[in-house]
Amino acid sequence: MRRAAVTVAVTAMAVSLAACGSAKESGDRAKTSDAPSRTDGRITIGLLLPENQTARYEKFDKPLVEKKVKELTDNKGTVVYSNAKQDATLQAQQVDTMVTNKVDVLVVDAVDSRAIAGSVRKAKDAGIPVVAYDRLAEGPIDAYTSFDNVTVGRTQGEALLKALGDRAGKGRIVMMNGSSTDPNAAQFKEGAHAVLDGKVTIGREYDTKEWKPENANANMEGAISALGKDDIVGVYSANDGMAGGVITALKAAGIADVPVTGQDAELAGVQRIVAGEQYMSVYKSYPREAEAAAEMAVALARGESLDSIATATADSATTKGVPAVLVPVVSLTADNIKDTVVKEGFYTLDEICAGRYRVACDRIGLK
Are 178 and 211 in contact (CB under 8 A)? Predict the structure, then answer.
């Protein structure tokens, strides 16, 4: 079995995520005189994550950020955590609470990248730097860490074409994109279209509300009804949760042998890959992303430069030249499970191959 993980390199040193930013906010972001300076390690970092539908946030991101902050502050740093449960209004209230409680730095994964801008401004006015985590929020952001999201979409599109082979031109695919309020979803879509357009016929395409699997399931049922079950040859799904909803709809319609993409390397997604129900996922090193966020947050709390941490820049619709760390991604298939999620300690073989998946693991030589 081939187990070589195919690492997708980070593209350009600067990633432009939107149009021109305002000079005023660029200047605000660069200003450091208002930032706290805590050199004794007694730092309080507010961590705001967007939802709990996707397993990664509670299982990986939160504990990884907490661990790195403690490591960088000799166990003196504290992380105060809130999850917005996909509610932008609730997230704004959570920012207000943390501003009132005078945290030293905010790390924010925005539910809605545009709606959060006012909250980012409020934190900035209170002298609290803001690190955009995973999604580039609008407003005067001080730093950003994520993955090269266009490359994620290209990776998914390339994998789908590989799985389709000669079938690429003989039927239609369905595109199940992420939420329209998530700027990452637009970039995944952009990357996927760059690869797929002209090589496949897209029968139906959806922006899936709130990334919810049940919404993806309903969309897929609609696509099957409109296109007919014999004409669908593949499905681009932007993440693993939605892939689960898509696959449930395919099974209910009696459709088999249709490659489905994913993202996030969720345990259920990896198990579906083992079982042959899902073709691939995108493995993203959450430890590297979380560690970068913690490093930038601690540096900002201490009033230190980000030059030695940030290796790229990013532009939002409101702010240019945000110091950024962009982490490479890997196309995860049945061939490289052991060299990716198992090797980095995401899951054990016993977790992946539990119950009914033991036979499937044995079949593909995953031992």
Answer: yes
Return d(Cα 156, Cα 328) in angstroms, integer. 14
CA–centroid distance for 139 within its chain: 20
Residues 6+ apart with CB under 8 A from 49: 57, 58, 61, 62, 81, 82, 83, 84, 109, 133
pTM of structure: 0.77
Counting other chains too, the contacts that 84-90 makes at CB distance below 8 Å and 24 or more residues apart are 84/48, 84/49, 84/50, 84/51, 84/111, 85/51, 85/52, 86/50, 86/51, 86/53, 86/111, 86/210, 87/111, 88/112, 88/115, 88/116, 88/181
Q: Give the pLDDT confidence score for residue 38 in this predicted structure.
A: 59
Burial degree of 355 (CB within 10 A; 0-12, 13-18, 19+): exposed
Give 183: exposed, middle or buried? Use CB within 10 Å, 0-12, 13-18, 19+.
buried
pLDDT in tens, 326-352: 999 999 999 999 999 999 888 999 999
- CB atoms near residue 75 (< 10 Å): 10
Are 210 and 185 a contacting pair, CB within 8 Å? no
List per-block mean pLDDT (blocks of 10 residues) for the chain, which spans 367 residues.
Answer: 35 35 39 50 94 85 96 97 96 98 98 96 98 96 95 98 95 96 94 98 97 97 97 98 98 97 96 98 93 97 96 94 95 96 93 97 94
Distance of CA 282 to the CA centre of its chain: 10
